[in-house]
Amino acid sequence: MSEPIKGILALVCACMIWGFAAIYYKQIAHIPPLEVLSHRTIWSLVFLFGLLSYMGRLAEIKAMLYHKRSIIIVILAALLISINWFTYILSVQIGRVVESSLGYYIFPLVAVVLGYLFLGERIARVQWYAVGLACFAVALLTIGLGVAPWVSLILAFSMGLYGVCKKSLPAGPVVSVMGEVIVLAPLALIWLLGVHHLGWTGFVGRAGGYFGSGWDTALLMFAGPITAGPLVLMSYGMKRLTLASAGLVQYLNPTLQFAVGTVIFMEPVTNWHFLTFGLIWIALGLYSYASWRGERS
Known about the structure:
Elements: H1 3-27, H2 33-55, H3 58-64, H4 68-93, H5 97-119, H6 125-145, H7 150-167, H8 173-197, H9 215-221, H10 223-238, H11 243-249, H12 252-264, H13 271-296
């Protein structure tokens, strides 16, 4: 099997896990999202520590955190990814998986603009058209529904800004995520201590402290592998594919999210949603075409 084929298979597996992850989070929708987020952080740390220990790469974490600038960037990245994770978990719990899928569709277009603003990256004229079309689509959905798709916008911009931070780090995705969960772990432990011993709830008065109660314990621990595992697959795949090819494969993630939201969770989808998604898909087609041409040239 050729290396590009291996890369595609790894990336497809990663996107399928992310795409179907809403089904997993729906099983623990009765647990407050901050508690789920805290366990996601702790068990990702455990999973990544074991993996990097096995690979003999723990020294890379120390090297990444050696400089003050790198530490600041890791802290910013940790804050942004925690916002993204929390928003996604909450979107599943409140029945907004379709809206979350829209966020991950428009994320590449948001990333283009942020790269231009913060990193000085050049944008082809066709990509500007794609960004403009995406902005028009979001405005159209806002007018149609009478409210902005906040879940989509928070997910897209938090992930876009997170990507800007990651580009400033010399470490790969797995090592850098390990640094981020190291930063977040003390906060997660403090919150879980409050949940189990002080009665903290953190979300509309729900009772907390589900860890240790049968099946919920196993599901919460599984948050580590389901978070970190796809990152490993993505890292493996990205090394073996061109950026244009990898970008096209990654649209599988929001497509599966949309399917889960509409087919499995039976979330309502209006004509405004279909119109918006149609425009976004056209915009992504323009963006992908421009990226492919740029890579060829």
